[in-house]
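does this look right to u?? magnesium ion version
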Amino acid sequence: MNDILLLPGDGIGPEIMREAQKVLAVLAPELSWQQGLIGGAAFDETGLPLPDKTLQQARDSRMVLLAAVGGPKWDQIDPALRPEQGLLKIRKALGLFANLRPAKLYPQLVNASSLKPERIAGLDLIIVRELTGGLYFGEPRGIRQLANGEREGFNTAVYSESEIIRIGRVAFELALKRNQKLCSVDKANVLEVARLWREVMTDLGRREYPQVALSHLYADNALMQLIRAPKQFDVMVTGNMFGDLLSDAAAELTGSIGMLPSASLNDSGFGLYEPCHGSAPDIAGKGIANPLATLLSLAMGLRYSLNLPAKAQQLEDAIARVLASGVRTADIALANEKTMSTVAMGDAVIKALC
Ligand code: IPM
Ligand code: MG
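got this back:
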């Protein structure tokens, strides 16, 4: 069994993954790793965004570290073969239904956020996003021709009770370990699927987690509250589509989406770890991307899938020291601060590890 499968993917993916490999070689040289293909890189080489071989490599590994997929180069190809499909397929095939996206503010970056420092100082929340259902995967879906000749696009938002309970338990368990507070986000004022979501979450809370204070917000209000007063939240749980939106917004609160890691877990604790940001084609190849979200994702993997909490802590501490020392990539730098390259940031983390 291999320890880690590295999937660099597209855009800035290969650049930031190189830094993760450098760090791994210093932090945990005893771990075995191999590389695989996903996204546009996989499409270019094999004609598929998720080749069977990659899926097999993932199944033969204890965790996956993925950088990013997608880019304008593949905008015109068959939508079923788009790079993003590789990511969606690997999530589905490995049953990675629980996506944890922690938004934690490093005190050193309090001025990098677009919010006033007093609104975000000490921010530490986590979004639990359902990742293998909902609008992203619901059937039927497609683009059809209507009788009048125009086309109509359609998707289906669908959640079964068991899917809601499964992600609900993950969120309630997390809330138990933190501040016994959980906010469930839905759109129960409009959508039947969300009405069921709210009812099932409420029942689950009453039955199994009476210690946790469960609240509910409509998604539009939740997004507003997240920007207005983010510190009111501790754990938030929501479906696939709203989770996608909420987590990008939460990322910006912490100064940059270049700082946010995520874990996607299945029933048996196997996980795929990836930064919340995308492939950033606008800066790909320039050597300026922030590798920290990927390094923080690696730390999450070391902790949750490889059971190496001390190594995870060592890496997280090194990153905090690097930030404290003023090293900044462009995305987290203030106007008057000197910016460093992707490689220099990786080197700084390695130096802080030793
Ligand atoms: C994310 C990304 C993906 C998603 C894309 C790249 C398919 O935005 O992980 O948040 O929508 O889930
Ligand atoms: Mg997203």
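Residues 70, 84, 87-88, 244, 278 surround 3-isopropylmalic acid (ligand 1) (CB under 6 Å). idk if thats expected tbh
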